[in-house]
Amino acid sequence: MTTGNMFDISGKQILITGGARGIGRMIAEGLLKVGATVFISTRKEDAATEAVRELSELGEIHAIAADITTEAGRNKVVDAVAERTDHLDALINNAGATWGASFDEFPDQAWDKVLGANVKAPFALAQRARRLLEAGAERGACPARIINIGSIDGLAVPSFENYSYSASKAAIHHLTRHMAATLAPTILVNAVAPGPFPTKMMSWILDEKGDEIAAANPLQRIGTPEDVTGVLTFLLSQASSYLTGTVIPLDGGLSTTMTVGMS
């Protein structure tokens, strides 16, 4: 194997949850451009139709409208994939939810909704998709991949009052390690913890303080789609075959170079 083809993921079949918008959309578009076959899930039928219409010129893409926070929705996604293929090379758990409210006003349903979407659903979907992933590992004679999309908010205390979100992302980071220990060596499980990216979830704060946020970053900018594609391509490729149970900060150094003032 040469250095060049170590990073080749063309022909791989990859399922991305929440792939119609935000970072999931960036991942889907980037992986199509490098030759992967992409399946995405999204909650709304019109979003699924639009994603296929807009991205099909880049490569082979299939979209399934389903709510993966429910057992029925997870079954629908995996069954739809299984109707088209007998294996998956990777599952990227990207879909999620957030909630913001002050400490005194933070409601019970914010915990149920966010932990259900950000922790329970990725685990349960991985259970359901395991057979297809193991078939992919056997077919390709190399481990399949599960990549969980976490957040910088699970690595450091965020400046926003999103208590259940930050807790859920810390949880998915640790769940990544636990799953990695269980599923090795057939399936490698890693996580990516993005910092600020131009997504709908962050649009409100970037519109108000985008320049300030970029200036506070050691790299003096926010993330780009190419940043996401690069890390995901590495994790999906043969180049990462000796890596499992890791959490990679994709934040321009925000979480890894932060300083603490001393009084």
Can I get a quick summary?
The protein is of the alpha/beta class and 263 residues long. The protein has helices at residues 22-33, 45-55, 71-84, 108-140, 163-183, 203-216, 225-236; strands at 13-17, 37-42, 61-65, 90-93, 144-149, 187-194, 247-250. The mean pLDDT is 93.
Structure characterization notes:
- α1 packs across α7 (225-236) and α3 (71-84) runs parallel beside α4 (108-140).
- The chain is 44% helix and 14% strand.
- It has 263 residues and is of the alpha/beta class.
- The longest helix has 33 residues, at 108-140.
- Strands 3-2-1-4-5-6-7 form a 7-stranded parallel sheet, with helices on both faces.
- The mean pLDDT is 93.
